[in-house]
Amino acid sequence: MQNKIIVFCDNQNTTSNALKEIEISLLKRGLFDFSFLSCSLYADCLAFCHDAKNESNVIVVCKNEDIDKLVEAVKTDTDNLTLVDEQAVKLEQTTTFGKILFVPIEIGVEKFLDGFVEKKNVYSCSIFGKNHTFVQNFFSEIKEHEVGFNYEIITKSQFLHTIYYSKHIDENVLNEKFGESVFAFDERSLQKCCADVLKEKSLSLSVADALTMGEISCRISLADEKVPLKEDLVLPNEDAFAKLNIEKAFLAEHGSVSKETVFVMSKNLLKDSVDLSLSVVGFDVDAGRCFVAVGNRQEIHVFSSLFYGSKQQRMENVTDFALFRLLRFLKEKY
Protein backbone atom coordinates (compact mmCIF):
# COMPACT_ATOMS: atom_id res chain seq x y z
CA MET A 1 0.00 0.00 0.00
CA GLN A 2 1.50 3.30 -1.07
CA ASN A 3 1.95 6.16 1.37
CA LYS A 4 1.35 9.63 -0.06
CA ILE A 5 3.02 12.66 1.49
CA ILE A 6 1.92 16.24 0.83
CA VAL A 7 4.12 19.08 2.06
CA PHE A 8 2.65 22.59 1.99
CA CYS A 9 5.10 25.40 2.77
CA ASP A 10 6.27 28.61 1.10
CA ASN A 11 9.90 28.09 2.17
CA GLN A 12 11.80 25.79 -0.18
CA ASN A 13 14.53 24.90 2.35
CA THR A 14 11.94 23.97 4.97
CA THR A 15 10.09 21.86 2.40
CA SER A 16 13.26 20.03 1.35
CA ASN A 17 14.23 19.29 4.96
CA ALA A 18 10.72 18.03 5.74
CA LEU A 19 10.68 15.74 2.70
CA LYS A 20 14.05 14.25 3.65
CA GLU A 21 12.96 13.69 7.26
CA ILE A 22 9.75 11.98 6.17
CA GLU A 23 11.54 9.81 3.62
CA ILE A 24 14.04 8.54 6.18
CA SER A 25 11.33 8.06 8.82
CA LEU A 26 9.30 5.89 6.44
CA LEU A 27 12.31 3.89 5.30
CA LYS A 28 13.29 3.17 8.91
CA ARG A 29 9.87 1.56 9.29
CA GLY A 30 10.34 -0.60 6.20
CA LEU A 31 7.90 1.42 4.07
CA PHE A 32 9.49 1.71 0.63
CA ASP A 33 6.38 2.49 -1.42
CA PHE A 34 5.54 6.19 -1.16
CA SER A 35 5.14 9.30 -3.29
CA PHE A 36 5.74 12.97 -2.53
CA LEU A 37 3.88 16.11 -3.52
CA SER A 38 4.96 19.59 -2.51
CA CYS A 39 3.29 22.94 -3.01
CA SER A 40 3.58 26.55 -1.86
CA LEU A 41 -0.03 27.63 -2.48
CA TYR A 42 -2.96 26.88 -0.18
CA ALA A 43 -5.31 26.22 -3.13
CA ASP A 44 -2.96 23.55 -4.48
CA CYS A 45 -2.67 21.86 -1.08
CA LEU A 46 -6.44 21.88 -0.65
CA ALA A 47 -6.88 20.28 -4.07
CA PHE A 48 -4.32 17.59 -3.18
CA CYS A 49 -6.16 16.91 0.09
CA HIS A 50 -9.52 16.53 -1.67
CA ASP A 51 -7.95 14.10 -4.16
CA ALA A 52 -6.37 12.19 -1.26
CA LYS A 53 -9.77 11.39 0.29
CA ASN A 54 -9.87 8.30 -1.91
CA GLU A 55 -6.38 7.22 -0.83
CA SER A 56 -5.02 5.47 2.24
CA ASN A 57 -2.15 6.55 4.47
CA VAL A 58 -1.87 10.17 3.39
CA ILE A 59 0.33 12.51 5.43
CA VAL A 60 -0.16 16.27 5.08
CA VAL A 61 2.65 18.38 6.53
CA CYS A 62 2.03 22.12 6.81
CA LYS A 63 2.34 25.07 9.17
CA ASN A 64 0.44 24.62 12.40
CA GLU A 65 -1.67 27.69 11.65
CA ASP A 66 -2.98 26.06 8.43
CA ILE A 67 -4.09 22.73 9.91
CA ASP A 68 -7.50 23.79 11.26
CA LYS A 69 -8.37 25.56 8.02
CA LEU A 70 -7.44 22.53 5.91
CA VAL A 71 -9.28 20.09 8.16
CA GLU A 72 -12.45 22.17 8.09
CA ALA A 73 -12.27 22.42 4.29
CA VAL A 74 -11.67 18.70 3.75
CA LYS A 75 -13.80 16.92 6.36
CA THR A 76 -17.46 15.96 6.07
CA ASP A 77 -20.11 15.32 8.69
CA THR A 78 -19.34 11.59 8.61
CA ASP A 79 -15.68 12.04 9.50
CA ASN A 80 -14.45 11.38 13.03
CA LEU A 81 -11.74 13.75 14.31
CA THR A 82 -9.24 12.58 16.88
CA LEU A 83 -6.00 14.00 18.29
CA VAL A 84 -2.61 12.32 18.06
CA ASP A 85 -0.54 13.40 21.07
CA GLU A 86 -2.60 16.62 20.97
CA GLN A 87 -0.30 17.87 18.22
CA ALA A 88 -1.39 16.29 14.96
CA VAL A 89 -4.92 15.70 13.71
CA LYS A 90 -5.92 12.40 12.15
CA LEU A 91 -9.05 11.84 10.05
CA GLU A 92 -10.00 8.21 10.56
CA GLN A 93 -11.73 6.18 7.88
CA THR A 94 -15.51 6.07 8.13
CA THR A 95 -17.66 5.65 5.04
CA THR A 96 -16.03 7.69 2.32
CA PHE A 97 -12.25 7.83 2.47
CA GLY A 98 -9.06 6.56 4.01
CA LYS A 99 -6.76 8.06 6.62
CA ILE A 100 -5.16 11.50 6.49
CA LEU A 101 -2.62 12.56 9.09
CA PHE A 102 -2.12 16.33 9.47
CA VAL A 103 1.24 17.20 11.07
CA PRO A 104 2.64 20.66 11.91
CA ILE A 105 5.82 21.21 9.92
CA GLU A 106 7.31 22.92 12.98
CA ILE A 107 7.25 19.62 14.90
CA GLY A 108 7.99 16.94 12.30
CA VAL A 109 6.42 13.57 11.64
CA GLU A 110 8.74 11.16 13.46
CA LYS A 111 6.81 11.08 16.76
CA PHE A 112 3.45 10.47 15.07
CA LEU A 113 4.21 7.78 12.52
CA ASP A 114 4.16 4.71 14.78
CA GLY A 115 0.48 5.23 15.49
CA PHE A 116 -0.39 5.88 11.87
CA VAL A 117 1.51 3.53 9.55
CA GLU A 118 2.46 -0.12 9.74
CA LYS A 119 5.98 -0.84 10.95
CA LYS A 120 8.06 -3.61 9.36
CA ASN A 121 11.56 -4.98 9.79
CA VAL A 122 14.22 -2.89 8.10
CA TYR A 123 18.01 -3.17 7.93
CA SER A 124 20.62 -0.60 7.03
CA CYS A 125 24.30 -0.16 6.34
CA SER A 126 26.45 2.95 6.00
CA ILE A 127 29.12 3.25 3.31
CA PHE A 128 31.84 5.80 2.62
CA GLY A 129 34.17 6.00 -0.35
CA LYS A 130 31.94 4.71 -3.19
CA ASN A 131 30.00 6.86 -5.62
CA HIS A 132 26.24 6.56 -5.90
CA THR A 133 26.34 4.64 -9.20
CA PHE A 134 28.57 1.92 -7.76
CA VAL A 135 26.29 1.42 -4.74
CA GLN A 136 23.17 1.54 -6.91
CA ASN A 137 24.45 -1.13 -9.31
CA PHE A 138 25.32 -3.58 -6.56
CA PHE A 139 22.01 -3.26 -4.73
CA SER A 140 20.20 -3.57 -8.07
CA GLU A 141 21.99 -6.90 -8.56
CA ILE A 142 20.78 -8.07 -5.14
CA LYS A 143 17.21 -7.05 -5.95
CA GLU A 144 17.26 -9.12 -9.16
CA HIS A 145 17.86 -12.30 -7.12
CA GLU A 146 15.77 -11.53 -4.01
CA VAL A 147 11.98 -11.73 -4.24
CA GLY A 148 10.31 -8.87 -2.42
CA PHE A 149 13.60 -7.05 -1.82
CA ASN A 150 13.37 -3.27 -1.65
CA TYR A 151 16.02 -0.69 -0.90
CA GLU A 152 16.62 3.03 -0.87
CA ILE A 153 19.94 4.87 -0.93
CA ILE A 154 20.13 8.07 1.06
CA THR A 155 23.19 9.92 -0.24
CA LYS A 156 24.42 12.38 2.36
CA SER A 157 27.46 13.67 0.49
CA GLN A 158 29.32 12.70 -2.66
CA PHE A 159 30.72 9.45 -1.26
CA LEU A 160 28.66 8.90 1.90
CA HIS A 161 25.50 6.80 1.79
CA THR A 162 23.08 5.08 4.16
CA ILE A 163 21.16 2.24 2.51
CA TYR A 164 17.89 0.98 3.97
CA TYR A 165 16.72 -2.44 2.77
CA SER A 166 13.81 -4.74 3.45
CA LYS A 167 15.57 -8.09 3.87
CA HIS A 168 18.58 -9.14 5.87
CA ILE A 169 21.76 -9.41 3.80
CA ASP A 170 24.71 -11.35 5.16
CA GLU A 171 27.23 -8.79 6.35
CA ASN A 172 30.05 -10.83 4.82
CA VAL A 173 28.48 -10.37 1.39
CA LEU A 174 28.50 -6.60 1.76
CA ASN A 175 31.99 -6.56 3.25
CA GLU A 176 33.24 -8.61 0.32
CA LYS A 177 31.78 -6.13 -2.15
CA PHE A 178 32.52 -2.84 -0.40
CA GLY A 179 35.48 -3.75 1.80
CA GLU A 180 36.38 -1.25 4.50
CA SER A 181 33.93 1.24 2.98
CA VAL A 182 31.16 -0.32 5.09
CA PHE A 183 31.69 1.44 8.41
CA ALA A 184 28.41 0.60 10.16
CA PHE A 185 25.53 -1.90 9.90
CA ASP A 186 23.12 0.52 11.51
CA GLU A 187 22.27 4.19 11.17
CA ARG A 188 25.27 5.59 13.04
CA SER A 189 27.08 8.46 11.38
CA LEU A 190 30.84 8.58 10.89
CA GLN A 191 31.21 11.05 13.74
CA LYS A 192 29.08 8.89 16.03
CA CYS A 193 31.18 5.81 15.23
CA CYS A 194 34.36 7.77 16.01
CA ALA A 195 32.94 9.25 19.21
CA ASP A 196 31.79 5.84 20.45
CA VAL A 197 35.27 4.30 20.10
CA LEU A 198 37.01 7.34 21.62
CA LYS A 199 34.69 7.25 24.63
CA GLU A 200 34.75 3.45 25.03
CA LYS A 201 38.56 3.35 24.96
CA SER A 202 38.93 6.59 27.00
CA LEU A 203 41.08 8.14 24.28
CA SER A 204 41.74 11.86 24.02
CA LEU A 205 41.97 13.59 20.64
CA SER A 206 43.50 16.82 19.38
CA VAL A 207 42.50 18.31 16.02
CA ALA A 208 44.27 20.85 13.81
CA ASP A 209 42.08 21.99 10.94
CA ALA A 210 43.39 24.23 8.16
CA LEU A 211 40.53 23.62 5.72
CA THR A 212 37.00 22.94 7.08
CA MET A 213 36.92 25.79 9.64
CA GLY A 214 36.29 23.51 12.58
CA GLU A 215 33.62 21.31 11.03
CA ILE A 216 35.42 18.08 12.01
CA SER A 217 35.61 18.91 15.73
CA CYS A 218 32.09 20.28 15.67
CA ARG A 219 30.68 17.03 14.32
CA ILE A 220 32.52 14.91 16.89
CA SER A 221 31.38 17.14 19.75
CA LEU A 222 27.78 17.10 18.57
CA ALA A 223 27.89 13.30 18.28
CA ASP A 224 28.97 13.03 21.92
CA GLU A 225 29.88 16.04 24.05
CA LYS A 226 31.72 13.77 26.51
CA VAL A 227 34.51 12.96 24.01
CA PRO A 228 37.64 14.71 25.31
CA LEU A 229 38.96 17.09 22.64
CA LYS A 230 42.25 18.20 24.17
CA GLU A 231 43.00 20.83 21.56
CA ASP A 232 40.98 22.18 18.67
CA LEU A 233 43.00 24.45 16.39
CA VAL A 234 41.41 26.17 13.42
CA LEU A 235 44.23 27.51 11.27
CA PRO A 236 42.94 30.22 8.91
CA ASN A 237 46.35 31.39 7.62
CA GLU A 238 50.04 30.56 7.58
CA ASP A 239 50.78 32.68 10.67
CA ALA A 240 48.50 30.40 12.69
CA PHE A 241 50.85 27.45 12.06
CA ALA A 242 53.13 29.02 14.66
CA LYS A 243 50.70 27.69 17.28
CA LEU A 244 51.99 24.24 16.34
CA ASN A 245 55.63 25.33 16.36
CA ILE A 246 55.89 25.05 12.58
CA GLU A 247 58.39 27.61 11.33
CA LYS A 248 57.92 29.77 8.24
CA ALA A 249 61.08 28.30 6.74
CA PHE A 250 59.51 24.83 6.86
CA LEU A 251 56.34 26.12 5.20
CA ALA A 252 58.39 27.91 2.55
CA GLU A 253 60.11 24.63 1.68
CA HIS A 254 57.11 22.26 1.84
CA GLY A 255 54.10 24.56 1.49
CA SER A 256 51.13 24.87 3.81
CA VAL A 257 49.33 22.12 1.87
CA SER A 258 51.55 19.03 1.70
CA LYS A 259 51.99 15.60 3.22
CA GLU A 260 55.06 16.85 5.10
CA THR A 261 53.20 19.72 6.72
CA VAL A 262 50.15 17.74 7.76
CA PHE A 263 52.44 15.05 9.22
CA VAL A 264 54.28 17.57 11.39
CA MET A 265 50.99 19.13 12.46
CA SER A 266 49.77 15.81 13.84
CA LYS A 267 53.16 15.02 15.36
CA ASN A 268 53.27 18.34 17.23
CA LEU A 269 49.73 17.86 18.53
CA LEU A 270 50.81 14.72 20.38
CA LYS A 271 51.91 16.32 23.61
CA ASP A 272 51.07 16.10 27.28
CA SER A 273 48.22 13.60 27.73
CA VAL A 274 46.99 13.54 24.14
CA ASP A 275 46.43 10.01 22.80
CA LEU A 276 45.49 10.75 19.17
CA SER A 277 45.84 13.56 16.69
CA LEU A 278 44.00 14.43 13.50
CA SER A 279 45.16 17.13 11.10
CA VAL A 280 43.77 18.44 7.81
CA VAL A 281 45.17 20.78 5.16
CA GLY A 282 43.94 21.44 1.65
CA PHE A 283 43.23 23.81 -1.22
CA ASP A 284 39.88 25.58 -1.15
CA VAL A 285 39.40 25.57 -4.93
CA ASP A 286 36.99 23.93 -7.38
CA ALA A 287 39.08 20.75 -7.40
CA GLY A 288 40.40 20.67 -3.87
CA ARG A 289 43.35 18.47 -2.94
CA CYS A 290 43.42 17.64 0.75
CA PHE A 291 45.81 15.83 3.08
CA VAL A 292 44.73 14.14 6.29
CA ALA A 293 47.06 12.85 9.00
CA VAL A 294 45.91 10.67 11.87
CA GLY A 295 48.04 8.92 14.42
CA ASN A 296 49.35 8.32 17.92
CA ARG A 297 52.80 8.37 19.53
CA GLN A 298 53.79 5.15 17.75
CA GLU A 299 52.76 5.98 14.20
CA ILE A 300 51.14 8.65 12.04
CA HIS A 301 49.41 7.88 8.72
CA VAL A 302 48.94 10.44 5.94
CA PHE A 303 46.19 10.20 3.32
CA SER A 304 45.40 12.32 0.31
CA SER A 305 42.31 12.78 -1.84
CA LEU A 306 40.78 15.14 -4.40
CA PHE A 307 37.20 16.42 -4.19
CA TYR A 308 35.08 18.37 -6.65
CA GLY A 309 31.84 20.34 -6.48
CA SER A 310 30.64 23.45 -4.66
CA LYS A 311 32.45 24.68 -1.58
CA GLN A 312 29.81 23.13 0.67
CA GLN A 313 30.08 19.78 -1.11
CA ARG A 314 33.87 19.81 -0.93
CA MET A 315 33.91 20.65 2.77
CA GLU A 316 31.37 17.88 3.51
CA ASN A 317 33.47 15.38 1.56
CA VAL A 318 36.73 16.44 3.23
CA THR A 319 35.12 16.21 6.67
CA ASP A 320 33.72 12.76 5.88
CA PHE A 321 37.10 11.66 4.52
CA ALA A 322 38.93 12.82 7.67
CA LEU A 323 36.42 11.15 10.00
CA PHE A 324 36.54 7.93 7.98
CA ARG A 325 40.36 7.80 8.19
CA LEU A 326 40.15 8.47 11.95
CA LEU A 327 37.61 5.66 12.35
CA ARG A 328 39.73 3.19 10.37
CA PHE A 329 42.78 4.04 12.49
CA LEU A 330 40.77 3.56 15.69
CA LYS A 331 39.45 0.18 14.55
CA GLU A 332 42.85 -1.06 13.41
CA LYS A 333 44.89 0.11 16.39
CA TYR A 334 42.47 -0.10 19.30
Gist?
Helices cover 37% and strands 26% of the residues.
Q: Which regions are unreliable across 5 or more consecutive residues at pLDDT < 50?
A: none
CATH homologous superfamily grouping of the largest domain: CinA-like
Strand residues, percent = 25-35%
For the record, give the distance between the C-alpha atoms at the N and C termini, rounded to a whole number.
47 Å
User: Which structural class should the secondary elements be placed in?
Assistant: alpha/beta
Radius of gyration: 24 Å
Order of helices and strands: EHEHEHEEEHEHEEHEHEHEHHEEEH
Q: Helicity range of the residues?
A: 25-40%
Q: If you average the pLDDT, what whole number results?
A: 90
| Spatial shape | elongated
* CATH level-3 fold name of the largest domain: Maf protein
Please tally the β strands and state the result. Answer: 15
SS summary, helix count: 11
Largest sheet: 6 strands, mixed
CATH architectural category of the largest domain: Alpha-Beta Complex
Number of domains: 3
Lateral arrangement of strands in the main beta sheet: 2-1-3-6-5-4
Class of the largest domain in CATH?
A: Alpha Beta
